[in-house]
């Protein structure tokens, strides 16, 4: 996906997230520990500003102030952080930037923030009972990011160990295939790219009927049970 595509998706998902803030801000976010919708909004907005600073100031130590508690102020604040982020990302993708993984460019953040916003848009909508669809092409990109960027970073930071077995992932709607883990796959899963993405991000259970399994299912599930993403 090109830069314009990432920015357009980010803008749409930010708007969709903001629309959820008219509901109960104390609603629990099922897959984010003990976070509420308010906490999730604070996280997303703060990370928007942090990533913008990584681009414009080339540093990774920015700390955002706490999000406002008032519902209307929170919505306005989140919208502002999104605008700051999008302005920072509206640049040549090869422009140097501080990043959490290679490549150290604006293009890294165009992709990363787009996919982060996608996941948390889904989280927010799920929290208010109205999780919308995920674009198959973007989901496909998100699965690739877990395989190529997120899991290697988790292992590098000591947040999880190397996978004990490899699993083949096949998206039935996009036709893409990936190998997650070392060596020959002991098991294979198949499903829509969006469902595989939600599985890897811990939003979908490995036993969900949307996911098809083949091979050594027990060892395959064990391989996917660790902290694959932050």
Describe the structure.
The chain is α+β, with helices and mostly antiparallel strands. It folds into 2 domains: about 5-125, Four Helix Bundle (Hemerythrin (Met), subunit A); about 140-225, Nonspecific Lipid-transfer Protein, Chain A. About 50% of the residues lie in helices and about 10% in strands. It has a 4-stranded mixed beta sheet with strand order 2-1-3-4. Strand 1 (about 165-170) and strand 2 form a beta hairpin. Helix 2 packs antiparallel against helix 4. The longest helix is centred in the middle third of the chain and has 22 residues, at about 105-125. It is globular, with a radius of gyration of 18 Å. The mean pLDDT is about 95.
What is the gist of this entry?
The protein is an alpha+beta fold and 230 residues long.
């Amino acid at each position: 996906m090109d830069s314009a595509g990432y920015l357009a998706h980010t803008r749409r998902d930010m708007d969709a997230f903001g629309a959820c803030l008219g509901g109960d801000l104390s609603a629990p976010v099922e897959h984010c520990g003990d976070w509420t919708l308010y906490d999730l909004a604070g996280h997303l907005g703060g990370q928007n500003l942090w990533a913008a600073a990584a681009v414009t100031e080339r540093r990774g130590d920015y700390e955002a102030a706490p999000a406002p508690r008032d519902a209307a102020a929170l919505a306005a604040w989140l919208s502002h952080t999104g605008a700051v982020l999008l302005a920072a990302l509206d640049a040549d993708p090869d422009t140097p930037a501080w990043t959490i993984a290679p490549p150290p460019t604006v293009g890294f953040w165009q992709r990363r923030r787009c996919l982060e916003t996608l996941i948390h848009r889904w989280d927010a909508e799920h929290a208010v009972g109205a999780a919308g669809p995920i674009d198959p092409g973007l989901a496909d990109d998100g699965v690739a990011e877990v395989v190529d960027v997120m899991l290697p970073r988790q292992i590098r930071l000591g947040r999880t160990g190397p996978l004990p077995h490899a699993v083949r992932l096949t998206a039935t709607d996009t036709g893409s295939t990936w190998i997650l883990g070392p060596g020959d796959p002991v098991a294979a899963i198949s499903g829509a790219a969006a469902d595989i993405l939600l599985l890897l991000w811990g939003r979908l259970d490995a036993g969900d009927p949307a996911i098809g399994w083949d091979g050594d299912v027990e060892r395959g599930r064990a391989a996917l049970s660790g902290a694959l993403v932050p």
